[in-house]
Amino acid sequence: MFSDWDSAPYGDLELLPHEYAHSWNGKFRRPADQATPNLNVPVQNSLLWVYEGQTQYWGAVLAARSELVTREMALANLAWTAAFYDAQRGREWRALQDTVNQNLLGYRSSTPWSTWSRTGGDYYREALLMWLDADTLIREATRDRRSLDDFARAFFGIEDGVWEPRPYTFDDVVAALNVAHEHDWAGFLRTRLDAVGPEAEAPLDGIERGGYRLAFVETPDAAYKRVRADWGRDFLFSLGFSLSSSNSITNVLWDSPAFEAGLTQGWEIVAVNDTAASAERLRAAVTAARDGGPIRLIVKNGDRFRTVEIGYTGGLRYPTLQRIEGTRDRLGDILTPRRR
Ligand SMILES: [Zn+2]
Fold it and tell me: 250 and 189 share a domain?
């Protein structure tokens, strides 16, 4: 990673800040139901959205503050995360809180219909959006005098030099948030953790309170291409799937155009509009479909072939965050190195 920094996967660039934050969030302060006395007592994971979720947030924030990544890269990564959870339909039946019960193998391997079943990745990345929501709420309510940094100081920055874990409960988290800013934090957290049903929305308020709006562009910028190295094979926000390097369909988005066309994970795209398939040709077809061109695929799974027409005319779509003019650039504040 260090010897070939420019081509290291983006996730690796955030990894060290993430693990560093675990010294406090996970090792020193540990959810009470994870701080078991010995291996005969089962671990419970009810607070993984703090243990991993807030660590994911600090990992993203500290990577930018320490200038391991540029602000543009941090914003591009945030745009993708926000767009993904905005598009994910699994919230219709499964609450974020329940994803802490996901087994780790299910999280780390590719499962079909993961955007419907949800995965353990959600208590990392959707929880990141929830903590951004909390951070920007504190900043807005205190005219940017306080922030989630004050929570961190009150919650993690205690008893310096102590080696033993200090367990915490949900109420302890709420109490430390109230040190940063008095608010109905129990209600704030439970609303976002337990929301379920067709009306339940991804926690995106932090983006707007941060001074940005989620938008989509046809041509991603350099920062986005650096963060999403596989952007050229990512049709998630247009057709609704990603393409492997061997043109196999992965990660079909529930309720997407690909879903409607009956495409599922594992089918290989053999031809795009009667020409040998490639990601580039598929991108060209998606663009041409805006003006009425077809998106006709021949797909193959084992010995079986199908011809599939996808009636999609929205063009290529890649997420980006656009500044809302006249608002405070709070995401910029959050990602700026702290100077004492
Ligand atoms: Zn972690």
Answer: no
Q: State the distance from the centre of ligand 1 to the C-alpha of 51, rounded, in angstroms.
A: 7
Q: How far apart are CA 314 and CA 310, in angstroms?
A: 11
* Nearest Cα to Cα of residue 191 among 262, 103, 301, 97: 97
What is the whole-number distance in angstroms between the Cα of residue 198 and the centre of ligand 1? 30
Question: Rounded CA gap, 289 and 311, in Å?
Answer: 9
Distance 199 CA to ligand 1 centre (A): 30
Pair 123, 165 in one domain: yes
Give yes or no: residues 61 and 194 share one domain: yes
Do 157 and 40 share a structural domain? yes
pLDDT one-digit tens code per residue, 8-63: 999 999 999 999 999 999 999 999 999 999 999 999 999 999 999 999 999 999 99
| Strands 242-243 and 212-217, bridge-based pairing | unpaired
Query: In terms of residue numbers, what domain contains 266?
Result: 238-309
* 309 SS3 class: strand
> Ligand 1 center to residue 286 CA distance, Å?
37
